[in-house]
Specification:
- Two copies of one chain form a homodimer.
- Chain A is mainly α and 224 residues long.
- The first copy, chain A, has two domains: 63 residues, Winged helix-like DNA-binding domain superfamily/Winged helix DNA-binding domain (Arc Repressor Mutant, subunit A); 136 residues, Four Helix Bundle (Hemerythrin (Met), subunit A) (Up-down Bundle).
- Helices cover 69% and strands 4% of the residues of chain A.
- Chain A contains ten helices and three strands, in the order H-E-H-H-E-E-H-H-H-H-H-H-H.
- A three-stranded antiparallel β-sheet of chain A has the order 1-3-2.
- In chain A, strand 2 and strand 3 form a beta hairpin.
- Chain A starts with 8 loop residues before the first helix and ends in a 13-residue tail after the last helix.
- The relative contact order of chain A is 0.14.
- At the A-B interface, helix 3, helix 4 and helix 7 of A face helix 3, helix 4 and helix 7 of B.
- The first copy, chain A, binds a DNA duplex (30 and 30 nucleotides) through helix 3.
Chain lengths: 224, 224
Amino acid sequence: MDLIAIPNLSERIRSVVRERIVNGDLAADSRINEVHLARDLEVSRTPLREALNALVAEGALVTKPRRGFFVRPLSAEEFQQIYPIRALLDPEALRLSGLPTAERILRLKAMNQALEDEPDAEQRILLDDAWHLEWVADCPNLILLELIRQFMLRTRRYELAYFRDPRNLATACDDHHRMLTAARDGDLERVIEALKLNLTHGIEPILEWLGEGKRPKEVHNQEE
Amino acid sequence: MDLIAIPNLSERIRSVVRERIVNGDLAADSRINEVHLARDLEVSRTPLREALNALVAEGALVTKPRRGFFVRPLSAEEFQQIYPIRALLDPEALRLSGLPTAERILRLKAMNQALEDEPDAEQRILLDDAWHLEWVADCPNLILLELIRQFMLRTRRYELAYFRDPRNLATACDDHHRMLTAARDGDLERVIEALKLNLTHGIEPILEWLGEGKRPKEVHNQEE
DNA sequence: AAATTGAATACTGTATACAATTTGACCATG
DNA sequence: CATGGTCAAATTGTATACAGTATTCAATTT
């Protein structure tokens, strides 16, 4: 019997649309035209609407009754609210997980290396998320993990800019390294401190980016 | 123009179904038959499915592709995971909010009195939630507030048993009182400590309840 | 008697159709 | 030239229809 549940169409649509929002293909604040988007994706409106509703729950969209779905704009305000929450959730999950096993430390080391070598910004985000999840893989509080995953999705749009800059990548990998050495010393509290620092380092550069140029694409919703 | 957005059918359905889950009208672990439930609610399946998907995001239901929606059972495990998260979120929100104004303290005092006098368990939950939200009303992190509200909904099913017992109500009001006196003394840290204690007090009795009798109603999904 | 297969049935997932509401353009009016 | 009203087109919300997938249960085989 199905151990891996095959996602249905609406779940696949959700991923695709989320991608488009993250990339800016669907401009911030723009209204989503269900008919056009459905035609573009070559699906009907029903599963599309299910996907859009799910994205509302994720915080990527907002919905106004009888007006439609709108892309939640990237904003310094939202970002300044989301990131501190991760800095609250992640350390707690790590504390509950305890120190990683020697085997896991090895894996983490390899993952960090892969991150350092990765040229593509989007892949870097995925690797970074995987890295953080690996630390808390043994966390007994599954709902907390669910929550962390949810917030990883919400921060994704912002992190794209962060991981494009090699200097930021270097900072991140450095922080990660500090976590690893603390773990090898068996000092959980120091690991947690390093994690908090890591999560804090992201804030400044992203706020800067949000302040200045913001996003390039603006109007361009989707073609007719 | 519409300051208060009138909810559409699917949003209203969501509330109704959530209610039924909380009450146990839809038994834990039972599969939801969309056709029957739609007929029962006198709506079509489309908005019902939108509502059910939203409830999945809320954690009240789970969905298995091509199998359908299932009522997430109340379990000691889930509860033990949810409550500590509230004990993480609420104090942080309170810290960000700062001490309440004298005016707000008065209002809180009145709210606690109302809670103490309330005979109905369901109303008590609503009043208790309102009480907690009043403390953090000034929290600048709106997303954190959103999250707290979300978890209030998730804990609701469990708290019903808690607030039925007058002894638990007394304990809660007592904790609340302690928070108020600490606030009047201008000692935020002591308020936060009292809040943590308040949130912790709920755990034991509910676990006990979950261990023994559990819920009365069991089979009874919905009538044909 | 137990296991297995296969057809009938029930149910979910998706598409389409229809109703209700909003939007925007056009024109009349001050 | 601005303002407001009316109507058509566009768009969302809901219902219904259909297709594909699970489940059930009886018939058949071992």
